[in-house]
Amino acid sequence: MSTFELTYKEKIIPQLLSKFEYANIMQVPKLKKIVINMGIAKAIKDKNAIEDAVQELTMLSGQKPILTKAKKAISNFKLRENQVVGVKVTLRGKRMYDFLFRFVHIIAPRIRDFRGFNPKGDGKGNYTLGLDDQQIFPEINLDLVKRTQGMHITFVTTATKDAECIELLKHFKMPFKDQ
To answer: What is the rounded distance in angstroms from the CA atom of residue 105 to the CA atom of residue 2?
Structure first.
């Protein structure tokens, strides 16, 4: 059991129970999964871009990503149906908590000119943030990086409101801007 998992069970659950005055311990929001998604615009022209993205996402997540494909053809973008346009990986359990720990303590402080993440969820109790550069991850070998690649990281929770989701992530030490 990871340190973040123990922290959640021993410290975060009682704090959220008292703050939001839940009637039952099962109402306390918890982190279900973390989804990391990389859209690859260069995949149409460069076939090696997909392989590079798969390799980098495998290194930083610890598991093999799946390829995402276009649902329909769009001629203006030279996009065909079922053409690979990105890669994504879903983290659950121990890998999820390990990634969250590394993200909060190692990766977020390495972001250039970082003042905190915007504390605004998606309206359904989840939180998504975007990163411009994959080179802030220490797992990625900078000598092998051919192009900068951004990504979206989605924290999916059981919370029903954004306030509950943001509060849960704050207890996990996620650095948000003060408002």
So the answer is: 14
For residues 40 and 86, is the Cβ–Cβ distance under 8 A? Answer: yes
CA gap 156, 158 in Å, rounded: 7
Query: Dihedrals φ, ψ of 60, to 5°?
Result: -85, -15
The one-letter amino acid code at 133 reads D
If you search the block for the tokens 């990766």, which residue do you land on? 107
Structure tokens that stand for 95 in this block: 């890998």
Q: Which pair of tokens denotes residue 93? A: 């359990």
Letter for the amino acid at 9?
K
- Kind and range of the H or E run holding 85: strand 84-91
Which has the minimum average pLDDT: 43-57, 60-74, 154-168?
43-57
**The pTM is what?**
0.86
